[in-house]
Write a structure and sequence with these properties.
single chain, alpha/beta, 7-stranded mixed β-sheet, 7 strands, globular
């Protein structure tokens, strides 16, 4: 069975065509490398549109949803606030590891407010908006993603 995954990019500038998003291709390539069928990325303005895009993706019951952007402290950075109400369970260790990995490159990683957790049987994770921050987060997920999806599917092999 092929697992499906979705991507939400939170960027008002990319959504309005001011610049081309560079994070979605990085995430998509990583997901494909890990055997996922990828639902086309949703590039939406920061704020409430992120929650709407997440709800639309979650209705498709993918195994994984990865967001990028909107996790900082700018007034319109609301990805964590739009994500948290949709999670049934948080997985704080994942975000701790992502922030720790990013901090080896920049102290600004500590400012990322993203969440990781489970909505139904879908793993949801908020990554930073920069391609380098995305790559750092995906590197943390590399050894975890298969086991994480297995557990959410009820496969309990250890």
């Amino acid at each position: 069975m092929t697992r499906r995954a979705g991507i939400v990019i939170a960027s008002t500038r990319a959504a309005t065509g001011i610049y081309q998003d560079r994070s979605a291709p990085v995430i998509e390539d990583w997901l494909v490398e890990h055997g996922f069928e990828v639902i086309p990325a949703a590039v939406v303005p920061d704020g409430r549109p992120v929650g709407a895009a997440l709800r639309a993706l979650l209705a498709l019951s993918p195994a994984v949803v990865v967001t990028s952007g909107g996790t900082g402290l700018n007034p319109d950075d609301a990805t964590p606030e739009e994500t948290l109400p949709l999670l049934d369970r948080e997985i704080p260790g994942v975000m701790e590891a992502i922030r720790r990995a990013g901090a080896h490159k920049t102290p600004l990683a500590a400012l990322s407010r993203g969440h990781a957790g489970v909505s139904g049987t879908t793993f949801v994770v908020n990554l930073p908006g920069s391609p380098s921050g995305v790559m750092d987060g995906l590197a943390v997920l590399d050894p975890l993603i298969g086991h994480l999806c297995d557990q959410l599917e009820g496969v309990h092999g250890h």
